[in-house]
Design brief:
By secondary structure, the protein is an alpha/beta fold. Helices cover about 50% and strands about 10% of the residues. It has a five-stranded parallel beta sheet, with helices on both faces. Strands 3-4 form a two-stranded parallel sheet.
């Protein structure tokens, strides 16, 4: 037996492990080395990346891919109806985007079918992409629109700011990294990534000034680089400027074979959507419109501000004067404007949008065991103040955070379980906070409130009924916890073991979904619950006299026997 037989050459997997250990030892956990997936085996991971590569795009929800992107069968009305759930107003933008998306993916669907039937014809067929440019101020829902379209149709979605990029070969993020990021968002599925959506915000920031001297690598250079991507080109899956990526490519090439995975991604069917505020574009349009009139007409003609009316007059020449290359703006044939949001719009966002900020604040207070309730008069004032911020829906966060900051800090750990956010609180937050603190005694053991909040949250999630306690009930629970040498969580689970049955019954009779329990419910839980159920039957009988069963009000309600001993009613009888 030769010496070589005793030491056989390492397998590709062994080499991968050794290279991975080397990378980790020299570069830390921020760098990983993995083999591309393929029929030859190897790691399930699909990319070699470091933290710096993640800057190419921001996180987005996981794409939904039910039947494959190639089974696209949505109508423009379907997409707009979906967007209506999340974005208030912007109806024209929703319509334009819905039509553009349907046209784009119907073309892609046709070309994919044609490729299977006649590959030569499919490759030579002319295809004008429906790339989109969105004009609109900050906070009006531009990103939301694109993100939820991608979610609906099930394609990977990448968002980035144009200001991060520079021309290929210069310091700054590489525009091609956006395409590579689609592959990562598609979990290594290159075919799915080739039908993804790339959204670039702040595109107006790469417009160039005609007076600039020298090479503008972050303006005109980025526009030039984007030209190829927005039409059709092949982008290497490995960044040529990244030594780690090139080492990975060499390793994959050595593994080789007929079943080797694709080493590039085609951008023919990737939809590009760009947006920006375009501050100053309205002045260019207005100047051109005034120049079209002379004499007295020029003095009397009223030029509107940048809104849907003025946008109807925008021409390609206006974008060129703003600082875009003719070839670049020509690759964006679909153009739409998102309008400013009024106080009424912001009010509607808080009350109706599925992504409402109000739901977020309710969840944040609920984590502390506090049920927050927003009144309409408070929402109106919040909307008016947010409109003054001139930052769209983002102004809502600015106003609410400033108003509720002290409440989040002071109320957790107290016996406060209900917070009503009304006009008085909005107008005088400190005075209202002082009143809440005065009425509620601080619980000496903050663990009590934490366990109560955990019990309430678990109860609500399991039974879809909210339960809270008034101040006396909280104090009594803490006292009983010490007397019985039990945790608050264990005590509540024992005292209210049967409450889901009774409260669900009351909910069915009256529609009530939230219950504030007094100290009686803690000391005599079964008797108190029985009384609530009886009352719900009586109230139902008074409101529905034609229903004979509703008038049959039971005098008492028998609850299931407790597993840990006799029922409370038996103890009372004795």
């Amino acid at each position: 037996m030769s010496k070589d037989d005793d030491n056989p050459p390492p397998t590709p997997d062994e080499i991968a492990r050794k290279l991975g250990d080397f990378m980790k030892a020299n570069f830390g956990d921020s760098v990983s080395f993995s083999a591309m997936p393929g029929p030859f085996g190897g790691s399930d991971e699909h990319d070699l990346r470091s933290d710096s590569n993640d800057s190419a795009g921001e996180d987005a929800p996981e794409p939904r891919n039910d039947g494959g992107i190639f089974e696209f069968d949505y109508h423009p009305r379907d997409i707009k109806a979906h967007l209506d759930r999340y974005v208030i107003r912007q109806d024209e933008a929703k319509k334009v985007l819905s039509i553009a998306v349907c046209d784009h993916y119907n073309h892609a669907k046709y070309l994919r079918r044609l490729m299977q039937e006649d590959a030569h014809k499919a490759r030579t067929l002319e295809f004008a992409k429906q790339n989109v440019i969105i004009v609109g101020p900050t906070g009006v829902g531009k990103t939301y629109l694109v993100k939820h379209i991608a979610e609906l149709i099930g394609v990977p979605f990448v968002k980035a700011d144009a200001t991060k990029f520079s021309e290929t070969g210069y310091v700054g993020a590489d525009v091609d990294d956006l395409v590579r990021e689609l592959v990562r968002k598609a979990d290594g599925d290159v075919e799915l990534a080739e039908y993804g959506i790339i959204y670039i915000d702040e595109i107006d920031k790469i417009a160039t000034s005609g007076s600039m001297i020298g090479r503008d690598v972050s303006g005109r250079g980025v526009q030039t680089t984007l030209l190829k991507l927005m039409e059709e080109t092949e982008v290497p899956l490995r960044n040529p400027s990244d030594i780690q990526s090139q080492m990975q490519a060499m390793f994959d090439m050595q593994r080789g074979g007929a079943g080797a995975p694709k080493d590039s991604i085609n951008t023919r069917h990737i939809l590009f959507i760009v947006s920006g505020a375009f501050s100053g574009l309205e002045k260019i349009i207005a100047q051109r419109m005034r120049a079209g009139s002379i004499g007295f007409a020029a003095e009397t003609r009223d030029v509107p501000s940048m809104d849907e009316e003025l946008f109807r007059h925008v021409e390609t020449h206006d974008y060129l004067e703003f600082g875009f290359e003719a070839e670049f703006i020509g690759r964006l044939p679909v153009r739409v404007v998102c309008e400013h949001l009024s106080a009424d719009d912001l009010m509607e966002i808080m009350k109706s949008s599925e992504g409402s900020l109000i739901r977020q604040y309710e969840q944040e207070f609920e984590a502390f065991g506090i049920r927050a309730k927003f009144e309409d008069d408070a929402l109106r004032i919040i909307a008016e103040r947010a409109a003054e911020e001139k930052t769209g829906a983002r102004g809502l966060m600015t106003v609410c955070e400033k108003m509720l900051r002290d409440f989040k800090f002071e109320l957790p750990g107290t016996s406060v379980t209900e917070l009503t956010i009304d006009a008085e609180l909005v107008e005088n937050p400190l005075k209202t906070l002082a009143r809440y603190l005065e009425k509620s005694a601080h619980v000496t053991d903050s663990k009590t409130m934490a366990e109560l909040a955990s019990f309430r949250r678990r109860f609500a999630e399991s039974h879809n009924v909210r339960m809270s306690f008034d101040n006396e009930a909280v104090a009594r629970i803490e006292e009983m916890s010490r007397e019985r040498n039990m945790s608050v969580m264990q005590l509540c689970e024992q005292l209210f073991a049967d409450y889901q049955f009774g409260l669900k019954l009351i909910q069915k009779n009256s529609g009530q979904e939230s219950f504030v329990l007094p100290v009686d419910a803690v000391e005599r839980p079964d008797r108190y619950l029985s009384g609530l159920v009886v009352k719900s039957y009586r109230d139902q009988g008074h409101t529905d006299d034609d229903d004979s069963t509703a008038n049959a009000v039971p005098e008492t309600i028998e609850l299931p026997p407790r597993a840990d001993g006799p029922s409370e009613s038996e103890g009372d009888k004795s």
